[in-house]
Write a structure and sequence with these properties.
It is a single chain. This protein has 14 helices and seven strands. It is an alpha/beta fold and 357 residues long. The strands form two sheets. The protein has a five-stranded parallel β-sheet, sandwiched between helices. The protein is globular and about 75 Å long.
């Protein structure tokens, strides 16, 4: 017979037990109190996020301080953040179309339609945007749970069209996220956050990541991208077969925010482009799997998806390795410059058509 040692009572007194219960009750009540006070603002919540977690102070300033129109906006998670060299795009459009566009990359670490919705909702209330580029995912990359950093900024604001319509279970999950972020948000409400200059201001939000593939030492390369005709990158009837739509059962939380983002962009009459980034393992592929739900959600949107085999045809496997870092999906600075240069003629063509409208 196994003898088990008795576990001591965790509280030395009833007063300690009462204090613990009060502390838990205060944590659970904190989201309700913050909602009632409308504090801290979403601007304060985003600006207080450390740079190590993402470029949120840069995003906050673009939303709440800058006023100019935006011609071309790349928005989404880290694959977009490190994958599109925005200064290179701006220079290419200026050279081709003869005017200097306002181009930004509002990217961040972590995947989530919820953060895409919040950022675009706040931005479009304050600035006019003509063209938004979103990432086209595969089924295994579609977000399901709340964004990993959502505890920092998620709040059940009165104009949020998504949270009130979710099921009780999904609302409970979101409430749990708010409880986790409660103490930090309370601190922001009690005293102002000191926010310094963003390191991403000079690159227009783009993260020029200098890390090597699978933690190898980074070596800066100057590889000339292939000349891809816009008609081969902008998918039309003849090239649509390049995509292999696959079905995924989307979680209600992120799918609801995905639909809300679509409706938000449509309400503001914004041209939407879906961009399919090639993974390292797809370097010699001729077809690209995509999430059919996302393609259907943005039915009629422009899709940019260069054929990987054509994109990397002049590179050895070792050279392709040196365009990526960390995993199969994220490009480093070499990769972003190479990929951006390859899709730039197609982007220019899309922007030319938008300008003509």
């Amino acid at each position: 017979m196994i003898r088990r040692e008795a576990i001591a009572w965790p509280f030395a007194s009833s007063a300690m037990q009462a204090a613990f219960c009060l502390a838990i009750a205060a944590l659970l009540a904190m989201p309700f109190v913050l909602h009632r006070l409308h504090a801290p603002s979403l601007a304060a919540r985003m600006s207080a996020v450390p740079v190590a977690a993402g470029p949120y102070s840069f995003i906050e300033r673009q939303i709440y301080e800058e006023k100019s129109d935006i011609d071309l906006l790349f928005v989404g998670e880290s694959v977009m953040w490190v994958g599109v060299d925005v200064p290179q795009v701006a220079e290419g459009i200026t050279a081709a179309l003869g005017h200097t566009p306002r181009v930004l990359n509002l990217g961040w670490a972590g995947t989530g339609n919820d953060l895409v919705y919040y950022v675009l909702r706040e931005l479009l209330e304050r600035r006019h945007v003509r063209h938004v580029v979103l990432r086209l995912h595969t089924v295994d990359q579609m977000p399901v749970a709340p964004h990993p950093e959502s505890y920092r900024w998620l709040c059940d604001c009165g104009d949020d069209v998504v949270l009130p319509a979710l099921s009780v279970l999904e609302r409970a999950s979101a409430f749990g996220v708010e409880v986790i972020g409660g103490p930090r948000n309370l601190l922001s409400a009690l005293r102002p956050d000191l926010v310094g200059a963003s390191p991403f201001a000079d690159t227009l939000g783009y993260y020029p990541n200098e890390k090597g593939y699978w933690n190898r030492p980074y070596r800066r390369l100057d590889l000339a991208p292939p000349v891809l005709a816009p008609a081969t990158v902008i998918l039309g009837p003849a090239t649509r077969s390049r995509l292999l739509p696959e079905h995924v059962a989307e979680g209600p939380y992120q799918s609801s925010y995905g639909r809300a983002t679509r409706d938000l962009l449509a309400a503001h009459h914004i041209h939407v482009t879906l961009l399919r980034f090639p993974a390292r393992s797809e370097a010699r592929a001729t077809t690209l799997p995509v999430a059919s739900e996302e393609v259907a959600r943005y039915d009629g949107a422009t899709i940019l998806a260069p054929e990987p085999r054509a994109l990397f045809q002049h590179l050895s496997d070792i050279e392709v390795d040196e365009l990526y870092y960390y995993d199969d999906l994220h490009m480093n600075r070499n990769g972003s410059k190479y990929f951006t240069g390859a899709i730039l003629p197609a982007l220019v063509e899309v922007q030319r058509e938008i300008d003509a409208q």
